[in-house]
Amino acid sequence: MKKLTLLFFSMLCMYSCQQKKENISKTKNLSTQEKIDSTKIKTLFNSALTEGQSYEWLRDLTQNIGARLSGSPQAAKAVVWGEKLMKTVGLDSVWLQPVMVPHWVRGEKEVANYTINGKKKNVPICALGFSIATPKNGITGEIIEVKSLKEAENMGEKLRDKIVFFNGAFDNTLINTFKAYGGCVGQRYSGASVCGAYGAKAVIVRSMTNGIDDYPHTGSMSYGDISKDQYTPTAAISSRAAEILSADLKKNPKLQFYFKQHCKTLADAPSFNVIGEIKGSETPENIMVVGGHLDSWDLGEGAHDDGAGIVQSLEVAYLFKKNNIKPKNTLRVVFFMNEENGTRGAKKYAELAKLNKENHIAGLESDAGGHTPRGFSIDANTVNTTLLQSWKKLLSPYGLHDLDKGGSGADIGPLKSEHVTLVGYRPDSQRYFDYHHTSTDTFDKVNKRELALGSASMASIIYLMDSYLYSNTPIKP
């Protein structure tokens, strides 16, 4: 019995020693792999900062084409530009994916004013996308000020024949300005449908910004399911004008506000998503998308929104090729059309991906401006969310500390499923809504180094997802 006991403990000791050796070996392998990944990421950042092309691409897009609203001649030029640039970068294949898009036009510059104490005050104003025009000579009416859709609904019939002024401001206690935007953008989008149902004469909305300035911010609005005879002209006024108007209404609640706009919606127009890819070296049937939207609003040059995202997405592929990184899975760059007022490009891409039985495993979107990188938001199953968050040690040296569960982006959102890992690139958001949807969203507002850091950040997480995501994701539904 003693011999058997001694033999048992001897065997147990040998097994334990073997397990320790295997664990040490695994630790060594992990450490070695981390060093390899760290070196690759450093190489991507070095290349972006010293040989990157995104800034010059953005200069070309914004200075030679400019604003690119869906259906416009400039949007058509941007498609040609994008296809040519992808071919120049040397992607394995490049093609155009047809999609019909909305075509709304602004027309002549809008005007607005009111008189108080005998003094006429001009108001910076711009029509909201999909709004109807005012009558030819403009529209004049008494103002009712509200701070939310709920407050407007509660007023009901009191809104009839009035110009409803939505003055809900950003919550500036929120560090994430996108959350502040989400908290009040509903008044811009749905204000006309709520007020039109009660017979309002028109709607004006405080611009969606955390700052106080003289630039009106445009954006989409909707009439919802109200009848056409209830449609009201709808426009945004600058945040400073909103503050002044609100104060003046306290002095004279009966003041008359006047504005005129000439916008209209034309028939849908043909356009394209621009697509290019690097074929995967091991599992080419698995697709990772990286992209942004090629269209922009018609004010400014669409530099931060979303020219920055477009050039950063292509630079991911450029950096891979520059550093001879051959992705295991197919890396597909997509310039989506019509994110700003319809997301038709995103819907068409997802529709055809499903129809063609394409196997997407991941998507990365850049549509939050070209400012300093902060991290990524993750929309994935629990396993892959944990996996991506485990890369913080590799990414944090580059300022990428935020790896939080959350949304990804409007253009890759339609690809969402339990087996697709979606990621949104998240730069610092503090200055983004200074420029968002305004005439100040121009090339000179983008910093070259910040833009390049964003490209490298995106390339780094794509490299990691390509290296590790496939084996951790249940690919087939």
Task: Please explain how this structure is put together.
The chain has 477 residues and is of the alpha/beta class. The chain has two domains: 41-104 and 267-472, Aminopeptidase; 107-262, Glucose Oxidase, domain 1 (3-Layer(bba) Sandwich), CATH 3.50.30. Helices cover 40% and strands 23% of the residues. The protein is built from twelve helices and 16 strands. It has an eight-stranded mixed sheet, sandwiched between helices. Helix 4 links the parallel strand 5 and strand 6. The longest helix has 50 residues, at 2-51.
Q: What is this structure, in a nutshell?
A:
The protein is of the alpha/beta class. The protein has 12 helices and 16 strands. Strand 6, helix 5 (177-196) and strand 7 (202-206) form a beta-alpha-beta unit.
Label the structural class.
Answer: alpha/beta
**CATH architect. name of the largest domain:** 3-Layer(aba) Sandwich
| CATH homolog superfamily of the largest domain | Zn peptidases
- What radius of gyration results from the CA coordinates? 26 Å
Question: How are the strands of the largest sheet arranged?
Answer: 1-10-12-11-13-16-14-15
Instruction: Count every beta strand, where a strand is a DSSP E run of 2 or more residues.
Output: 16
In total, how many domains does the architecture comprise?
2
Number of helices: 12
Set down the secondary structure blueprint:
Blueprint: H1 2-51, H2 54-64, H3 73-89, E1 93-105, E2 111-116, E3 119-122, E4 125-127, E5 139-146, H4 149-155, E6 163-166, H5 177-196, E7 202-206, E8 234-237, H6 239-251, E9 256-260, E10 264-278, E11 283-293, H7 303-322, E12 329-336, H8 344-355, E13 359-365, E14 373-379, H9 382-389, H10 392-395, E15 402-405, E16 421-427, H11 432-435, H12 448-472
Parallel strand pairs: 5-6, 6-7, 7-8, 11-12, 11-13, 13-16, 14-15
Antiparallel strand pairs: 1-10, 2-3, 2-9, 4-8, 5-9, 10-12, 14-16
Helix pairs in contact: 1-12, 2-7, 7-12, 9-12
